[in-house]
Amino acid sequence: MHRREHVVRQLRHLLYLFAILLLPAASCVAAPISQDTLQLPDGTWVVASDDTFWLYLPPKLTTPSPGARPVSGDLTSYRNDRRTHQLLTGVVSAAWTDQPLSEVEPAPEQFTLPRYLFSLASAYQTAAAEYPMMHKLGARLRALGKDAQAQYCEEVARNAYGHDNAIIEDLGVLRIDAPAFLQALAPPGAVALVHYFEHLIDSDHPIAAVGYVYALQTSSLLIDKDMVQKMVAALPPGVDATRTLRIRSDVGGSVRHVKETEEFIATLPASDRRLVALTVFDTITLMKSHSHYPGDEVVNRIAQKFKLRP
Questions:
Q1: 87-102, pLDDT tens digit by residue?
Q2: Which among 95, 303, 282 has a CA at the least distance from the CA of 192?
Q3: pTM of the predicted model over 0.70
């Protein structure tokens, strides 16, 4: 019996040492001001320095050796734009880690006109909500005495005004009655995101809603120039209905918006940055869980009902 217990202890010790060897040494010792560490809801740790980040999922059956200390949940107490960028990039990477590559990078058959119409309908839900919701968020923060944060959100709201017009224009170019089509096709995933956004704004910590904004901004960066060109090829000949696609991709203003949001998040207190980072993860998780596409046939049938005559 004693021998069996000894073997189990030895095995656990070896597993722990093996896990340590797979990690950057800095992630297994005390974390001073040289790095930020954050544990995500799925148990993954994000460790961020000024120049890079690590993702670490601790093995379950391990017993730390004497003197070793796992990563702690410490965020820098002062503004550090570079480290905030690495932390948020790590959170986004962790959130997408279990997403099959085929779903992150669409296969050729996914570049179809009905899929593009579905994406426009999804984008309309979130774009139409951005202006009023960001104004509401600014008002909530101002009521809490956080004027600087409120001012930023109000500025974002002003910049977001009319973003949904690009979607309506693209549908018009495709000869589709935009108001009727968008009322008939409201993708559940996008609707769920908007409800989550409103829930965050109404919560006791409304600043967390900035994490939702950042998650949507970074997700648009998955649409690169090559994907835009493939979608253009799926449109009817001579039709350019990609204003929305070009705006909400890494060939449009999304890169600048992401950078501006990161700079704002870096100004927040550590407790608020933690809430924002966790919300980024939760928002992407929600996006992945509601990514069902009903199929080209279903979307095309809806589109044909609202097709405008030449």
A1: 999 999 999 986 544 4
A2: 282
A3: yes
